Amino acid sequence: MNRKNQKPVKKKVIVTGGAGFLGSTLVPALLKEGYEVHVIDNLVSGKREHVPEKATLHEIDIRDVKALESVFKKVGHIYCVFHLAALPRVKFSIDFPLESHSVNVNGLLNVFEASRKAKVRRIVYSASSSAYGDQVVMPLNEEMKPNPKSPYASQKFYGELLARQYHLHYGLETVCLRYFNIFGPNFDPNGPYAMAIGKFLNQKKRNEPLTVTGDGSQTRDCVYATDVARANILAAESGKVGKGEVINIGSGKNISILKIAEMIGGKNGKIIHVAPRVEPHDTQADITRAKKLLGWMPKVTIEKGITELKRLNAIK
Asked: Which of 295, 298, 173 has the alpha carbon at shortest distance from 245?
């Protein structure tokens, strides 16, 4: 047999929640890097059209243990699992704690167990900067004591603890990426990841006033989806992680919600202030660890990202 003419075997990866907002950027990026990509999504909030033809979609719920384990067994020899699937809504977790818990904790545990049984090499877990809660000092670094303010934040923090335990007891390689506020193409204007940016863009497109919660002085660290996707791939490939490390993924800078509204709606645009909600007042990532362990730095500034989203949405 002439092995020189054989095509190299593609590394197999699974992306849970791969039909969602971030998945719509990560999955194409993985395909471009030459991976064989399998998407697990129940399509409740994800969209079938977000999954490229070259990826394989398994339409199941991560709470269905048998179906989940069957997919893992069928795929076989899995290089990495990117766990994006979640109900990432703070208010929803407060109003419906049982359903939120069933996906963000029970579903998460199912993915870890399926990975352990299938002898998956590594899990890259999508954690959340909401675990920090309110902190006195900025920027936020991974050594700070977590102070989650919602069931959702607590659930995402629990995932970090679980990642460390699965490495400690079962030898499963794990790494946790604490996302700050992700924005980018295919945002859900009603969803949490789009934050104010998605909502503002939609309101601007409909020529409506932009609604700002509270006085707008609260700040956010906004990171573009393509940068987050790249961080995921680096986390899968890095030889410096795998023991449950927690790593901030943000821009390293923060900006006020009011300033974002002005960037999208213009300084003369109409802004309406609405009641504040339960959320940390400020966020800003210390990305020193991401640079050191992943060799990662964000490339897209918020100005560049908003300009691109305006172009994609035909907003002047």
From this structure: 173
Reported as half-sphere exposure (CB side, CA atoms, 13 A), residue 127 has a value of: 30
Q: Using CA atoms, how far apart are residues 234 and 124, in angstroms rounded to an integer?
A: 10
Tokens of 95: 């109003």
Radius of gyration of the chain (CA): 19
Reduced to 3 states, what is the DSSP secondary structure of residue 58?
strand
* 193 belongs to the catalytic site: no
Catalytic residue among 152, 158, 166, 193: 152
DSSP assignment string, 150-198: SHHHHHHHHHHHHHHHHHHHH--EEEEEEE-EEE-TT--TTSSTTHHHH
Summarize pLDDT for 170-211 with one digit per residue, the tens.
Answer: 999 999 999 999 999 988 766 554 468 988 998 998 889 999
pTM for this predicted structure: 0.93
Taking CB atoms within 8 Å and a gap of at least 24, the contacts of 270-276 are: 270/209, 270/210, 271/209, 271/210, 271/211, 271/212, 271/216, 272/209, 272/210, 272/211, 272/212, 273/211, 273/212, 273/213, 273/214, 273/215, 273/216, 274/211, 274/212, 274/213, 275/213, 275/214, 276/213, 276/214
- Summarised one tens digit per residue, pLDDT across range 59-117 is 999 999 999 999 999 999 999 999 999 998 888 899 999 999 999 999 999 999 999 99
312 vs 225: CA distance, rounded Å: 14
CB 30 within 8 A of CB 37: yes
For residue 32, count other CB atoms closer than 10 A to its CB: 12
Spatial distance between the Cα atoms of 316 and 311, rounded to a whole number of angstroms: 8
- Name residues whose C-beta falls within 8 Å of residue 16's C-beta, 6 or more positions apart in sequence: 40, 41, 62, 81, 82, 83, 84, 85, 111
- Beta-bridge mates of residue 181: 222
What distance in Å separates the CA atoms of residue 176 and residue 125, rounded to the nearest whole number? 5
Token pair in block for residue 36: 């064989």
